[in-house]
Amino acid sequence: MHSTTTDSVPTEKASILRQPRAVWAVAFACVIAFMGIGLVDPILPAISHDLGATEAQTMLLFTSYLLVTGLAMFFTSFVSSRIGAKRTLLAGLALIVVFAALAGASDSVGMIIGFRAGWGLGNALFISTALATIVGAAAGGADSAIILYEAALGLGIAIGPLLGGALGGISWRGPFFGTAVLMAIALVALLVLLGKPTEKPTPVKLTATFRALRHPALLTLGLTALFYNFGFFSLLAWSPFPLEDAAHAAGFSTFGAHQLGLVFCAWGIALALTSVFVAPRLTHRFGRRRTLYAMLTLLAVLMAVLATNVESLWVLIVGIVIGGLFLGVMNTVLTESVMEATDLPRAVASSTYSGVRFVGGSIAPALAGVIAAALGSAAPYWVGCAGLLTAVGILFAGRRHLAPIDAHLVEATYDEALALTVADS
């Protein structure tokens, strides 16, 4: 099993900022890449209004992106093991630049949905390889690397809506063109800062990620993440629509891209803070499994609160930001658990887990628009709540396979006992 001796909080504090240049280069690119997720959020209502699209059609902007991302991730370890991590990262960024620009130049929601799918392919090549690259190259162990990766995710998701709101206030096309420019900057940064690989990658078989699902621990965590993403993307993708409706009902005549950008910026900041500062302390104190149970349950309760107060603007805003606090812990702890649960190569574990996770994320937005049209604005939140409770059930059912993810607690107890013995001597 992978070493977990870096789980203690003091070690993380001492090492997390002392990273090789390659790690910072990839982390910088990750921030920009993850901006693409939240960048579109503030302009969803504007796209719906300006292009005459239904809410269900607009939700497909997330579905096409996430579905292609998830399916492609099953093959990214095969690709990166043959052309190398750097080329895979650059190819992913180049695809995002092209398809983001094409989405901005589109004249129909159908064209945007199609180009978002191409964007998802680039996203898959980049994100899965970036996680494996950071974990493999980071100083301070896997946990410090994952915290850094999740911090980049949170920072990107926080900045994305803010920038999307600013550019979306000019035109709904602005965020797409803005993403293309930022990704081009990230591409140049990686070309300059990411050095040549020192080792030739070991080729991974095409079927490696599918065979990895035979591992009970990875399958359990992957399915947990799949249903967890029902909650995550019900909150992220659907919330702009009830927020806009609640704001208008509350008498706010102007509640558009700028305001939505600020709400989801606060959500992203909350996510980033807990992923870096809270998750390590909770796992050190209570273990990863207990932390996952607690966060999934709290998120399910939160989704139920949002569903029963879907017409209240301030409940929605406060609930979304609080959700970011729980989601930050979940993302970090789930990713750490996947990396520690098996002896599989990190690239294979990352690709497999990410593939299952994003496929789950693609289903939630597609359901949200259809269910809301039939049952009302609260329905997507109830679906998210059901998904989160299902994730709790899956985690509990597979609990006997997940003992390795809490091995750090055993090591910590042994180290503390040894220190006391030495002191007594």
TrEMBL record:
Pfam assignment, any one: MFS_1
Membrane-crossing segments per the record: 22-40, 60-79, 91-113, 119-139, 146-170, 176-195, 216-238, 258-279, 291-307, 313-334, 355-375, 381-398
Keyword annotations from UniProtKB, A to Z: Membrane, Transmembrane, Transmembrane helix
CDD domains: MFS_YfmO_like (cd17474)
InterPro entries (alphabetical): MFS (IPR011701), MFS_dom (IPR020846), MFS_trans_sf (IPR036259), Tet-R_TetA/multi-R_MdtG-like (IPR001958), YfmO-like (IPR053200)
Chief location of this protein within or outside the cell: membrane
Taxonomic superkingdom: Bacteria
Membrane association type: Multi-pass membrane protein
Stated name of the protein: MFS transporter
Species for this entry: Microlunatus ginsengisoli
